[in-house]
Amino acid sequence: MGESVRVENKGKNENKEKDFRQRDIDDLAEVLENGSFRQLFSCIVAKHIGETDPLNGLEDDPAGSYWKIIEPPPPRLPRRRCLFVYEHVCTPLNDIPSLGEAVDILRLVLIPLRLMFCAGWVHRDISPGNILAYRESPGSPWTVKLSDLEHAKRFPDPASTGAADSIIGTPYFIAYEISGRKHVYPMFQEYERDASHPVKPVPVVHCYQHDLESIWWILIWLITMRINQKLPWRFGAKHFTDKVGYGHASRRGALLTQGLAYDIDIHHSLPPVLQRSPFLIGLDRLRRHLYIGYSTRSWEAKWTDVSSYSLIASEGMNSFFDEVKASRAEWEDIELIVNSEPRPPTAHASGANKQHGKPVSNKREAGDLGGEGRVRKRARPNSTPAPAIVSGRTGPITRSMARNEGRITRSMTRRLQEEERQKKRR
Known about the structure:
With 426 residues, this protein is mainly α. Helix 3 runs antiparallel to helix 6, helix 6 (208-225) runs antiparallel to helix 10 and helix 10 (278-300) runs antiparallel to helix 11. A hairpin with an 8-residue loop joins strand 5 and strand 6 (143-146). It has helices at residues 22-33, 65-70, 99-108, 110-119, 176-180, 208-225, 234-239, 246-258, 265-268, 278-300, 310-323, 328-331, 399-403, 410-425, and strands at residues 43-49, 82-86, 91-92, 121-122, 131-134, 143-146, 153-154, 397-398. The protein is 34% helix and 7% strand. It has a domain at 22-54 and 76-189 and 201-330: Transferase(Phosphotransferase) domain 1 (Transferase(Phosphotransferase), domain 1, Orthogonal Bundle).
């Protein structure tokens, strides 16, 4: 049975699923044998690409010609209206109404992540907006889809130059090693005198465990920022921000390496039923599995050894979901905030009567993050006119594949709405 989930990568990575539980191997074998693995990823079944907007020139320059001399503004890029039809109407994780359902969905998303692991790919942008779910009727079980493979990458990348990866993803859920740009080592100093330890710093490249750590951050975000009760946000304001920098990485690194009890504000941010509960204990044990995985791999310098990730990908992640089952009746009906407007928290937010923290939906590299916690929009150049109708591909199209066909910006949407209003006036 295990042979059915092996992929072509051989050699030292041949036993990449060597530490998988048998039930995880059976789950993967089932979706591969019956072909249902395609349903675990969001696909487009039809699309319409509009004509290219012919406007092209310099943006208005309110600062005058002096600003143009110092730094010329970017050109206005062609835009197109794109319409896509998906095979299912899905609900993102940040719109799931109860904690029990959200935990079930996160457990199910491990299957497509393990498929990517066996195929030799990492997602690099695990966030609530990219974890989708649908069901046939109210009350029926959720089916999970993993979306937005725009930043997915092979691991290890055969074309890698040995440089560190760019900081990619949604800042709320980026793994600590990526945001901090350094590996996690054991919390003692003997390794500095160990001759086997690499002398030069090794660049951090996005790996399988970084995707799994994002799930840990999502779970913490759900119970500290999304509970629909009047609770303080002191913990969330420190650890969930749309800016990625040294202070952000340092705080999150301390939480990951030293434990959830390190920050006492987490207890004040939780409803009473979750304070010192098996759920919170399970989250801290999952944190410990992540820390051990990172530090052991760094100690042995096995960052590119794919088989070293199999333990955390199976046993480590399963341990949390298995442990919280016993206390499920206590927390499964906890109501979560549901709205589609992402609003980042502020340091002064303290209760449910203020803006509820949600992740920034525009995902960019850290260098694009602007002032006041906003994410700068980056237009994607595409100067080639497109036909009104684009013929379909042979096979499914993912949502991220569609993004390359053209992007609709907010300004484009406002302009189209204004054109519709003018037509009605006539």
